[in-house]
Design goal:
single chain, two-stranded parallel sheet, 5 strands, globular, binds adenosine monophosphate, binds tryptophan
Length: 340
């Protein structure tokens, strides 16, 4: 039997997800999951790079696990787990740190953005974030990494580190490919359509959260910032309307041309209502299903425990190889059950 190729991706449990995360990430996870041996992590260690309120990380980790399940990720077929439950992620990060240069990390767009946003907490973890992400990916000999466009630079670093390590120590890691959806890879803010939609935006009207109910969704789309020339067409100089068209087509499966034709001669008010309804019709059942699953913590714990066990089996195979390649003294059998 031919083994399936490995797909790996992760999302940070750092708050309620937006439709940007849904379209840029989860929707593609679901689409691709059965063509690969898929591994989906909750990047909880990454989340620690930004200060967390008491109890928030735990709550958000359950939330995201339930959302993964509600969106159709299958815990039997795929591997769902929390990054912190498989220590190999932190261990490989250390090794990769020894072949990473500070300049590669300090010029990362996300590091620069987050340093400005969290001026009071520019910690080493924030800078090292992409190396932990490389460890996530490389531990599983991953072929494909579905991500939103904002993670492209980090994926490039993962590839560079894999190649660098292989050159220095001999063939060890598979060099991963990114999978960035052709449309909706970058869903923009409803309030400032030049900026990415983000779950940490201080203005709640700037994003649609996966927890918003139908009324809230429709109200937020009604308020979405557009322009005033009343033409519903996709164009660079119309970022607001273009973003709404992107969202509408991603949720309905229609093409941009079909949507432009559908709304030809119609007003912005009509259009915004239709976008809101299209989004709500998909999000609403997911939210309800997520809340149902969320009520059963034992089930969620079981899913994560099984996932961690399966993930660890693959991860330690790679870490073991890495430790040997870099020349560490092998540990005696039985000393650490994880190292075989
Ligand atoms: P994060 O919430 O930063 O952990 O992001 C999780 C995933 O969602 C990553 O693959 C991101 O690239 C993707 N993502 C985040 N924001 C957006 C957005 N506005 N549009 C499209 N994809 C996004
Ligand atoms: N850094 C990613 C984000 O913020 C989340 C992530 C962590 C990830 N590890 C990963 C994505 C590995 C893909 C592969 O979106």
């Amino acid at each position: 039997m031919e083994e399936k190729k490995i797909l790996f991706s992760a999302i940070q449990p750092s708050g309620i997800l937006t439709i940007g995360n849904y379209l840029g990430a989860i929707k593609n996870f679901k689409k691709l999951q059965s063509d690969y041996q898929s591994i989906f992590a909750l990047a909880d260690l990454h989340t620690l790079t930004v200060k967390q309120e008491q109890g928030a990380l735990k709550r958000n980790t359950y939330e995201l696990t339930a959302l993964y399940l509600a969106c159709g990720l299958d815990p039997e077929q795929s591997i769902l787990f929390a990054q912190s439950h498989v220590p190999a992620h932190a261990e490989l990060t250390w090794i990769l740190n020894t072949i990473t240069y500070p300049g590669e990390l300090s010029r990362m767009t996300q590091f620069k953005d987050k340093s400005l946003k969290h001026e009071d907490n520019i910690n080493m973890g924030l800078m090292d974030y992409p190396v932990l992400m490389a460890a996530d990916i490389l531990l599983y000999q991953t072929e494909l990494v579905p991500i939103g466009a904002d993670q492209k630079q980090h994926l490039e670093l993962s590839r560079d580190l894999a190649i660098r390590f292989n050159n220095r120590f001999g063939e060890t890691f598979k060099v991963p490919e990114g999978y960035i959806a052709k449309s909706a890879a970058r869903v923009m803010s409803l309030a400032e359509p030049e900026r990415k939609m983000s779950k940490s935006d201080a203005n709640v009207n700037a994003f649609i959260s996966m927890d918003d109910d139908t009324d809230t969704i429709i109200r937020k789309f009604k308020r979405a910032v557009t322009d005033s020339d009343n033409k519903i067409i996709y164009a660079d100089e119309k970022p607001g309307i273009s973003n709404l068209l992107t969202i509408y087509t991603a949720f309905t499966g229609k093409t941009i041309e079909e949507a432009e034709k559908e709304f030809d001669g119609k007003g912005y008010g009509d259009f915004k209502l239709k976008v809101g309804e299209a989004v709500a019709s998909v999000i609403d059942p997911i939210r309800q299903e997520k809340n149902k699953i969320l009520a059963d913590k034992d089930y969620l714990d079981t899913v994560l425990a099984n996932g961690a066990e399966r993930a660890a089996r693959i991860a330690y195979r790679t870490l073991n190889k890495v430790y040997k390649k870099v020349g560490l003294l092998p540990r005696k059998r039985g000393y650490n059950v994880r190292l075989r």
